[in-house]
Amino acid sequence: MDAMEAILSRRSTRKYKPEAVPKELMDELLNAAMNAPSAGNEQPWYFIVIQNRKILDEIPKFHPFANCLKESPQAIVVCADLKLLKHPEPWWAQDCSAATENILIAAYAKGLGARWVGVYPIEDRINGMKELLGLPQEIIPVCIVAIGYPAEKTPFESRYQSSRVRYNRW
Ligand SMILES: Cc1cc2nc3c(=O)[nH]c(=O)nc-3n(C[C@H](O)[C@H](O)[C@H](O)COP(=O)(O)O)c2cc1C
Hints:
This protein is α+β, with helices and mostly antiparallel strands. The chain contains five helices and four strands; from the N terminus they run H-H-E-H-E-H-E-H-E.
């Protein structure tokens, strides 16, 4: 699958098969994540792979939109490490978002399903994840990516809207 096809036809997966994704494939997703662009090339991220069903099942108890994690056999928590920042400007949420999008596209291109489950900047969700995973103070959970083999097909629809484009000025 070429890059444009993956970007245009990727859609979020809600339903997953119970089979675990092999480690080599998870490593490919992590490799995609770590090759994302980041401000000043700081790469201020950590990735926590969760494969433990009990831990995954805890998340929807404090996150109201995380039901997909009840089915996905694994997830990657994308975190920022504030201690890795060398620049004063807070670009880390955008850096971690770029890494997250790389995971979504790589997963889809490899025949997997995935879904971005937002955490930052909602305080209850950040605190819930910090407590659940024992995160140090400087580690901020930005989002959780549910990952697994898809058990549903999501229909393609083009979202291109020429009315949302301006040239040179508003
Ligand atoms: C910042 C962000 C936060 C999101 N949070 C959630 C979430 O908490 N739960 C969820 O099921 N989906 C979440 N999503 C997935 C969106 O609902 C989904 O991307 C959107 O409906 C567009 O559908 P698509 O991914 O199939 O193109 C989130 C997506 C983004 C970018």
